[in-house]
Specification:
- This protein has 304 residues and is mainly alpha-helical.
- The chain has helices spanning 12-22, 29-33, 36-44, 46-57, 73-76, 81-119, 122-138, 142-210, 246-263; strands spanning 3-5, 8-10, 215-221, 227-234, 270-272, 290-295, 301-303.
- The protein has a three-stranded mixed β-sheet, with no helix packed on it. The protein has a two-stranded antiparallel ribbon with strand order 1-2.
- Helix 3 (36-44) crosses helix 4 (46-57).
């Protein structure tokens, strides 16, 4: 194919550069042509959709936030709030697993240790070893030597039980320390969640002030009450885009398209496909030149 600008042949790279300088970033031009591209993106890749909205409203500076997030300020200088939250959540998982696993490990060790301590008393066996050792010096015989070997083996078992008991104490200490670490991480995660929610509210307010005909919810509430970053497009009444009628979706798409046209200060013709879903009274009339497309008789396309 050949690309021409003002009747002069240009390369694909030159054309892309021209679009970037004269219209908008190349990866955003689809949203200028039809808002349906963005409403589809908001369903398929919410993180990317949120990033685009951040770019439109200029994001949210720390100075705009009312909460105290100074504890996270150093890490936020290098990472996004969402990355920080996900990193903290990832750190919590192995700690939770270890805390949950320790009681079972302790119980198994206690079962063995309690049984061994009942049968092998370390102090009593140690006294027995000392006694037998003295007897061998004064009266060495097979019976005394055999008894000493058995006593030494029993002492080894008793010492093993003692070491295992100390290991149980260490496990309990580890459990307490990990529980304290988990509490601290939970506090950091709650702080990151609060930051994300406040940012989402601020960005949501900014973007909705620029929209007419629809709204965008920047976070959603889960069943457990937690708020998570989101990008849910609704009509003015708050009805989710996915459940809207065809005509209502078209109106939302037009509102989204108009948002991008205003943001990039671009005036282009607005194409309204499936215009037949509207009656003449409620036919959308966006600013600028508009072209309505209707399905005519015998598979024809009516352009108005």
């Amino acid at each position: 194919y050949i690309i021409k600008i003002d009747d002069f042949d240009v390369t694909a790279t030159a054309f892309s550069e021209w679009v970037e300088s004269m219209i908008c970033p190349l990866d955003k031009i689809a949203y200028l042509l039809d808002g349906a591209f963005f409403t589809a993106l908001a369903l398929e890749d919410k993180k990317k959709a949120r990033a685009i909205i951040d770019g439109i409203v200029g994001g949210c500076d720390m100075a705009e936030l009312k909460g105290d997030y100074s504890k996270l300020s150093s890490i936020l200088a290098k990472h996004t709030a969402e990355d920080v939250r996900n990193h903290i959540a990832a750190q919590m998982l192995p700690i939770k697993k270890r805390i949950d696993a320790i009681p079972a490990i302790i119980n198994n060790k206690l079962f063995v240790v309690n049984d061994l301590e009942k049968r092998y008393n370390a102090d009593r066996i140690s006294d027995k070893v000392s006694e037998l050792s003295s007897n061998i010096l004064t009266n060495p015989n097979k019976e005394t030597i055999s008894a000493l070997v058995i006593a030494c083996k029993s002492l080894g078992v008793a010492e093993y039980a003692k070491v295992e008991r100390e290991g149980i104490d260490l496990l309990k200490k580890e459990q307490r320390e990990m529980a304290n670490s988990l509490v601290e991480l939970e506090g950091d995660k709650a702080l990151a969640d609060a930051l994300l929610e406040e940012r989402a509210q601020i960005v949501g307010c900014k973007i909705n002030k620029l929209l007419t005909g629809c709204k965008i919810q920047m976070f959603s509430t889960q069943i457990n009450g937690a708020n998570i970053a989101d990008c849910v497009i609704t009509d003015d009444e708050g009805v989710n885009f996915a459940t809207l009628s065809t005509s209502a979706r078209l109106r939302v798409n037009l509102a989204i398209q108009n948002l991008f046209k205003k943001h990039y200060d671009v005036s282009i013709i607005t194409w309204i496909d499936e215009a037949a879903v509207f009656d003449k009274t409620h036919l959308p009339k966006p600013d600028g030149q508009v072209c309505y497309l209707y399905a005519g008789d015998s598979d024809t396309l009516v352009v108005e």
